[in-house]
Amino acid sequence: MALIVKKFGGSSVANAERVNNVANIITDEYRKGNDVIVVVSAQGDTTDELIEKANEINPNGVSKREMDVLLTAGEQISIALLAMAVEKLGFPVISLLGWQAGFETDANHTVARIKKINTERLKAELAKKNIIIVAGFQGINKYDDITTLGRGGSDTSAVAIAAAMNADRCQIYTDVDGVYSADPRKVTSAVKMDEITYDEMLELATLGAQVLNNRSVEMAKKYNVELEVLSSLEKKKGTIVKEKVKMEKTLIRGVAKDENVSCISIIGLKDAPGVAFKIFNILAQKKVNIDMILQSVGRDGTKDISFTVSFSQSPDAVRALDGLKDRFEVKAISVNDETAKVSIVGAGMQSHPGIASKMFEALYDANVNIQMIATSEIKLSVLIEQKSADKAVQAIHDAFIN
Ligand code: ASP
Ligand code: MG
Q1: For 72-124, what is each residue's pLDDT tens digit?
Q2: Nearest to 259, CA basis, from 337, 335, 372
Q3: Nearest CA-CA partner of 12 in 211, 205, 179
Q4: Is the distance from the beta carbon of residue 65 to the nearest atom of ligand 1 less than 6 Å?
Q5: Closest Cα to atom 6, ligand 1: which residue?
Q6: pTM for this prediction
Q7: Are 174 and 17 in contact (CB under 8 A)?
Q8: Most exposed: 42, 104, 123, 146, by fewest CB within 10 Å?
Q9: Nearest ligand to the C-alpha of residue 10?
């Protein structure tokens, strides 16, 4: 007998038919003699719709506490409906809200972090042979107020339960059947991976692969919880996410694209020590997250610095820099939103020469110009013009994976 944690995303419980389908999946598992804890998200686009309702009431910004009270209602609906569907099939079941399942979080409303899970209730319900359905994405803080874990947080709820209960398996069901080497809707030759490491998955998650929330992958890595990403609609094996995978032929596991990038250039800075420090210090104070950075060679006593930020932070960055114009005798600050970051990810690239040249050759053959380059141990990214991004992904994918 094993303890299995299963998480179902919003699309997997979007309507009555889907809820019934999930009830079948979990009761099949229970019938095998296993203990089953299920974590669910809000149905379909419920969370987005609730946010819209809040904005309708007060477009100037509702309080985060009340937003949490509102948003947790989405998951409350799904756990009740799913428990009813399981009841209908004649199995013992109980639904629990986050606080009932023991989720203690810090007090940061809308982006709370899990502090611990008190597992007594979960253990007691398993001892009674109940299938447990837990509301994902929510907990309670030390003031007994309801909190949420940030968008996409129910993946993290599932991993946290698996870690706290020492589960034998943690399965994340979604509407795709696993993790692919590129977005299968765009790159028809994309291949599904049998296995991927936590580090690779983290890079792909942050780069917009959108199968797993990255905080959940961080937590899975920390507590060594093996994850399986699989489809709730098709019965087949998914992708396993774990610490080490068997060596495969392919050094590069995936190609990812991120169009949510702005490139900001500061032209004509004084070529002197401390200039870069002062600029990035101001940006840090304004909590602007910098990704890639490029500094030109100094000429005639001046230099240029360019860097990328997420599209949503670009106005903050420009505002912070505007105040510096006079202090640094800057000639111009320009913003280019028509950029995209394309990256290759693979743990094998650390020990293999020639990866960069192969990627650049593929871009050259596709006639795509590189604006910036950044590397980490298991990732190589280039900044290019946005309209060439799909073409670039395809060319790089062809070069490395097919
Ligand atoms: N319902 C929440 C959201 O849409 C949490 C989740 O889906 O994981 O962000
Ligand atoms: Mg959702």
Answers
A1: 999 999 999 999 999 999 999 999 999 999 999 999 999 999 999 999 999 99
A2: 337
A3: 211
A4: no
A5: 152
A6: 0.86
A7: no
A8: 123
A9: 2
